[in-house]
Amino acid sequence: MKTTFAFAAVAAFVAVSAPVKADNLVFSSWGGTTQDAQKAAWASPFTEKTGITVVQDGPTDYGKLKAMVEAGEVNWDVVDVEGDYAAQAGKNGQLEKLDFSVIDKSKLDPRFVTDYSVGSFYYSFVIGCNADAVKACPKTWADLFDTAKFPGKRTFYKWSAPGVIEAALLADGVPADKLYPLDLDRAFKKLDTIKSDIIWWSGGAQSQQLLASAEAPVGSVWNGRMTALAATGIKVETSWEQNITAADALVVPKGAPNAEAAMKFIALATSAEPQAALAKATGYAPINLDSAKLMDPETAKTLPDQQTASQVNADMNYWAENRDAIGEKWYAWQAK
Amino acid sequence: MSTCSDASGAIMPLPKVRRATGFGWALPALAFVGIFFVVPVAILLLRSVLEPVPGLGNYAQLIGSATYLKIFANTFIVSGLVTVISLLIGFPVAWALAIMPGRLTSVIFAILLLSMWTNLLARTYAWMVLLQRTGLINKMLIGMGLIDQPLALVNNLTGVTIGMTYIMLPFIILPLYGVIKKIDPSTLQAAALCGANRWQCLTRVLLPLAMPGMAAGALMVFVMSLGYFVTPSLLGGTANMMLAELIAQFVQSLVNWGMGGAAALVLLVVTLSLYAVQLRFFGNQNPGGR
């Protein structure tokens, strides 16, 4: 017990104080199964190919990122962030411009490419349902907001981010191509109608727990979590009707010590095969357009990129512009 | 259990107990606190009056907004509730521990400490599992025929209060135990001999003697509750948001350090003034009884 502790303490100390050498690269992501998959699908082949060790760090924390950049003491080289944050941070001068002579963007889904970021993977907010716990599963956002037809608790993402406001507006009958600029007042009015029936989830594992335990048998969740839930044997149904997509993005913080290696890492991470491998492991879609043909058909049909028929794109640029203002209103409404 | 009174002594403020004879020994510690605590806090506070524009705008916004005021109120209501309930449960437990035979005491201490050392997140999730609509408690109550609809025990004030009280209990039991253990049983006997009934023994002898321990424990629980993050975030609903979560949101997700700093300063000032009050009234009565 004591030795384990001592060992852990020493390991932690070394991890904190190890000088970032040129043949090292620090990658920060959100932890959990997604980062495990990123490690296996991206970092391992990268190290094999280049000899550069990839040190995993995380979870990603925007406050920390900002502090590093401002202090000129950056120790993350590549960071997995949310798409709207990437757009905002790029504008605020906190990110390095990506080197597209190293990263081949011709094969990447253009929806997720900016001067400062490329997609990491993309996901959809879908309507998830524990089919054992309810009489009928909601199919549309309007259904999910209809407490008469579908009584009981429903779960939504707690934080101010693309997804819930769009869902409320779609449920209220706003056509998908007229979503932006978001009519916040209308969205909150719609959300008011189900406010007392909402249980919020703040992390993916919690959304699974709420659905599986039938604490909230229906709700809006990340599609990958439904794939994982189905794999545990629980009878779940996913409705892709108007699935709302957003992407994570890979960025290089301004002043990253190994920016050159970072570009190479991003080039590899966004290439067809590693993207396919990540998609297979996580249930999230690849952003490389060539990855689809590398997927086995069984996995492919559970990914958002096969569900484009009624897909709604969350507008990352709009969110980047209005992130703070929306956040303020969002939390004010929640706390009411 | 001398170690326990040591432990409880160590977490109390200990003014004037050991009169410092030389300043030198304290220098490394002071330097550590200075570099890793005072400087970063000062920077954060500076940002609260400098960002996004110099002035007191952030504070005006904090105080002027009904939302933030509600979050302040939530924070104090939850902390107060947790403190009172912890005292009500903790006092009898500490009392029982103090008068129990030695072996039983160590078993209960072991349970207390083990629960304290268990991962906070795991304990919070465990409460979630127990309290939810399909959870053990609701199932049991329904099975016994006491209720027919599951009670809403989680994602609201009830959930936060239960979860936090459970987590705070050791912090009130340990200092209380230290104080009660030091009370000479003969004072109670003397009171009884002088004709005091049980109620009088409790209110006029035991409670006043235990007061420093209660005050120290209550203050610690209250202050820790003010800054609590994980449990309210997981067991509460959005209507019960507390200050720590607001600060985290400002700093981590909205990257608005000005507002985050302002909210943090308010929390710091409240905490320090509470300590000041406690020192003023109980500062000379060291609960460790040295």
TrEMBL record, chain A:
Highest taxon of the lineage: Bacteria
Keyword terms: Periplasm, Signal
Signal peptide stretch: 1-22
Presence of keyword Signal: yes
PANTHER family: ABC TRANSPORTER SUBSTRATE-BINDING PROTEIN, SPERMIDINE/PUTRESCINE-BINDING PERIPLASMIC PROTEIN
Name of this protein: ABC transporter substrate-binding protein
Species name: Rhizobium lentis
Automatic annotation (TrEMBL), chain B:
Membrane topology per record: Multi-pass membrane protein
GO biological process, one term: transmembrane transport
Protein keywords: Cell membrane, Membrane, Transmembrane, Transmembrane helix, Transport
SUPFAM superfamilies: MetI-like (SSF161098)
Protein's recorded name: ABC transporter permease
Pfam families, per database record: BPD_transp_1 (PF00528)
GO cellular component term of the entry, any: plasma membrane
Superkingdom of the source species: Bacteria
Family: Belongs to the binding-protein-dependent transport system permease family. CysTW subfamily.
Domain ABC transmembrane type-1 per the UniProt entry, residue ranges: 72-278
Residues forming coiled coils: none
Originating species: Rhizobium lentis
InterPro entries per record: MetI-like, MetI-like_sf
PANTHER family noted in UniProt: ABC TRANSPORTER PERMEASE PROTEIN, INNER MEMBRANE ABC TRANSPORTER PERMEASE PROTEIN YDCU-RELATED-RELATED
TM annotation in the entry: 22-46, 67-89, 159-180, 205-230, 250-277
Annotated compartments: Cell membrane
